[in-house]
Amino acid sequence: MDDIFNIGGDLERWLHLRELEQASSSVFVGTEVDPLRVLMDPNVTEPWEYEHSRTEPFIPGSMHPKQVEALASESRFRWLFWANQTGKTTTGAIDIALTALGRHPNQKWQAPLLLWASALTWDLWENILLPELLTWIPPERIIDAPEPRMRSTKRVILVRADNGRISRIVGKSAEQGAAKYQSARVHKVWMDEEHPESVWDEVQPRLLRHGGEVITTATPLLGLTWLYHRIYDPWKRGRQSDHYCSHAGLADNPSIDPKDIATITKEFEADPQQAEARLYGRFATPTGIALRFDPNKHLESWTPDMKDVVKQQKWRHVCGVDFGYWRFAFVHLVVDRAGRAHVVGEVFSQKQDLTVRAKKIHDHLTLWDAPKETRLWGDAANPTDIVELNRELTRINSPYRVRPVRAENKARQASVTLTNKLLARQALMIRRNLNERQVWRLGQNAAADGRPQVGSRLMYEIAQWRYPKPKDGEAQAQDPADRTADGADMVAALRYAVMSQYRAAEFEIPISVGKNNRDSGLEKLNEQIKNEEDYGA
Question: 41 with 24: CB under 8 angstroms?
Fold first, then answer.
């Protein structure tokens, strides 16, 4: 009877385990039980009590289909975008443990191996990743390891592989910064949850020597970040042949009761964006985002000959400029004959003088054959900025000039309303892969150099700019908070260009849908603008 009490009093489960012991002596009989052999044994399907578990008493006796599929994938880069409680962290730990021992179904190397297991913080490493790893590595194969849930400077698990050699699993934390991911030749990296893009970039050179691999297990809670634009969207369009992406929801985990799924689903009814990520593992725009941008609707591919089309059809060029030493933003739009705006370029400059910035703007507009009368609408909060930038443009013989944006066209709430109306009509589009290799620093200021980021700064800000979360008992603020997007400077430049082009402060865009379901409001608005005597003044 002691055995029954040891496993929680579940007599039926105890009897089942005893049957399994007799039927599969290779995994249950001996001085030590090998949890990975139990996991791979087809005779074991139910959770079983494991005395060496560092997570919870009962661990899985088999993997669900999504886990099996992820483990079997031969892609170098595997991305498990799974909901909470779907076994994603367990899958990552199992994958690393099998590789360290030399048992992975797609084993490419033999021990000794160097593997990284990376969390966002050391607390997560010590409390989540480390216990999972120590649960699945057979105890007799652990030569040395830090103790879970205890503050320690020890970060390495030494594992004796099946061939007798020693593999190392090194703990990493994104809070150390990308620089701590340098100077190593790694066979495989496991990143649990979405890491900063700078860490992803730093990991790539570490994989070159061995043709290394990465497995990422993450719930996409942060919305349409670099992970979506740089990894997921290209993969979905067939441009990432060496990547594997997988979605899994609560229903994919057979150990979760359907009644529990129904209960938690009801809890997220008021927050569908969170529900998409937490319940189904899908990318979604977070709650409170100011601009209703949808990459599936508002990103467009541009072929090289489109520049000729812009020139031949004389599309209007409109630009916005936002000044700042730490963050200088320039956005370039072209407006087609139907009045639709297309974002085709951006310049984001940090800690550079106006000479460099003027040349970047001039070179970009020259590349697009923008006419000399192209409007560059700049924030006139400090008129000296406009004067000095124009002086630099004159010095390099550039025909382009910055003009102060009208005060009414800086209205933030009005600009959000207008921009969202344009997005709703797909009358504001953004060129796909906009500055996808641009390097900039997030959070750079006088006290910190910031974290390196790669990709479009405008796309980052659009995905992050949101309304501040109200305190209990307070009304929701109607003005988005710039701090949510590291200053929202590119968004500001976009607002100046959009407001100056469409004059939202003077009249509303008509909402008119004809019988053929074609929205003609923008075409009428564009004609109205052209007929104004002072247009462009």
Answer: yes
Model pLDDT for residues 322-337, shown as the tens digit of each residue = 999 999 999 999 999 9
- Spatial CA neighbour of 205 closest among 183, 232, 173, 231: 183
**What is the radius of gyration, based on Cα positions, of the chain?**
28
Query: What is residue 436's three-state secondary structure?
Result: coil
Beta strands in 133-240 (DSSP E): 142-144, 156-160, 166-173, 188-192, 213-218
Amino acid code (one letter) for 77: F
SS3 label, residue 244: strand
Buried b (16+ CB within 10 A) or exposed e, 87-123: bbbbbbbbbbbbbbbbebeeeebebebbbbbbbbebe
Domains of the chain: 2-59 (no CATH), 65-280 (3.40.50.300), 298-531 (3.30.420.280)
Cis peptide before 112 (omega within 30 of 0): yes
Output the CA torsion 465→467→470→475 (10° steps): 170
pTM given for the model: 0.62
Q: Which candidate, 15, 38, 18, 17, places its Cα nearest to that of 26?
A: 38
Q: Sorting pLDDT into bands at 50, 70 and 90, what band is 433? A: confident
Distance separating alpha carbons of residues 334 and 58, to the nearest angstrom: 60
Per-residue HEC secondary structure of 262-303 comes to: HHHHHHCCCCHHHHHHHHHCCCCCCCCECCCCCHHHHEECCC
- Asked if 369 and 315 touch (Cβ cutoff 8 Å), the reply is no
Strand order in the sheet with 213-218: 142-144, 156-160, 166-173, 114-119, 188-192, 213-218, 77-82, 243-248
Within 13 Å, how many C-alpha atoms sit on residue 252's CB side? 25
Q: How far apart, in whole angstroms, are the C-alpha atoms of residue 148 and residue 134?
A: 9
Provide the pLDDT for residue 505: 39
CA distance 377 to 326: 20
Rounded to the nearest angstrom, the gap between the alpha carbon of residue 468 and the centroid of all alpha carbons in its chain is 21
Q: Residue written as tokens 């938690």?
A: 264
What single DSSP character describes residue 73? -
Q: Encoding tokens for residue 232?
A: 């997921």
CA distances to 33, 75, 160, 177, 238 from 79, rounded to whole Å, are: 31, 10, 28, 22, 15
- Asked whether residue 10 carries a pLDDT value surpassing 80, the answer given is no
Angle at 231 between CA 230 and CA 233, to 5 degrees: 85
Average pLDDT estimate for 186-211: 92
d(CA 500, CA 43): 70
Determine phi and psi for 191, rounding to 5 degrees.
-110, 120
- Residue 364: strand, helix, or coil: helix
Q: ∠ CA 167-148-77 to the nearest 5 degrees? A: 50
Three-state DSSP state, 536? coil
User: What tokens appear for 530 in the block?
Assistant: 């052209």
> Mind listing the pLDDT tens digit for each residue in 472-502?
777 777 889 999 899 999 999 999 999 999 9
